[in-house]
Every structure is written in C-alpha cells, then in structure tokens.
Amino acid sequence: MTDRHWSIGEMCRDFGVTARTLRFYEAKELLSPLREGSRRLFTRRDRARLTLILQGKRFGFSLEDIRQLLDLYDIGDQGATQLARTYDLARQRLAAMEAQRDELTRAITDLREQLALGERMLAERGIRVAAE
Fold it and tell me: What CATH number does residue 101 fall under?
C-alpha cells in the first residue's frame, strides 16, 4: 500500500492557506514535504503537523513554540513529553488570553462611560449625537 501524497495546491485548498504560507512553514522546518523535482509532495505527517500548526497559531503560540512541540513527537515516548509540554504551554496561553480579555472588558467599560459623559456634555450644549 502506498501512502497518499498531496500537492501544494491540494494542501492550500484543504487547509485554506497560501502556497507562500506552506513554503514559509517548510523554511521554518515545521513541514518537510517530499520533493519530486521541483514539486512538493505532502504526506499524512505533514497534514497532521499543519493541522497542529494552524491550531497553535489560532491559540497564539509562537512559531518557535510550535516547532519545539512538534519536534517532541519524535523523541520516542509515544508523545508523552509532547503532550505534557503542550498542556503546560496551553495553560499559560489560556491565562494570558483571559488576562487580555479582562483588560479588554475593563477598557470597553471605561470607553462606554467616557462616551456617555461626552454624550451628556454634548446634549447640554444642544448638540445631538447619532444613534447607534
């Protein structure tokens, strides 16, 4: 049984990324497609790695963090080290995201208060503001 391979075009279509993105990830050693002349042929492993790369990016992990996590898969402990390190980084990232959310919530509240104050001040001067 031969493994299926995907062209760069198929990968782009399947994952909603550009060829430039795939070449960039290859240059950063996150993906390692096979070469057939000048063609890149992506394996199931590349597809799994790209799924993890895109998910890591969505969660705000740096490419270096993602590369290190992906490299841990190959150390031969059935992914235990990779899983533990991913869990630790994910907990840290979640805490950072929650802190950002809380700061954003405070900023939104403050801005709404300032807008209300501005609206009152404008109304005192007989200036109407546009409704939202």
Answer: 1.10.1660.10
Q: Exposure string (b/e) for 17-48, b if CB count within 10 Å is 16 or more? A: beeebbeebbeeebbebeeeeeebbbbeebbe
Q: Token pair for residue 107?
A: 């900023």
SS3 61: coil
Residue 132 domain flag: no
Helices then strands, counting H and E runs in the chain, come out as 5, 2
pLDDT in tens, 49-70: 999 999 999 999 999 999 999 9
What pLDDT is recorded for position 107? 98
Q: 124 Cβ partners below 8 Å, 6+ apart? A: none
Average pLDDT for 63-84 = 90
Q: Is 16 strand, coil or helix?
A: coil
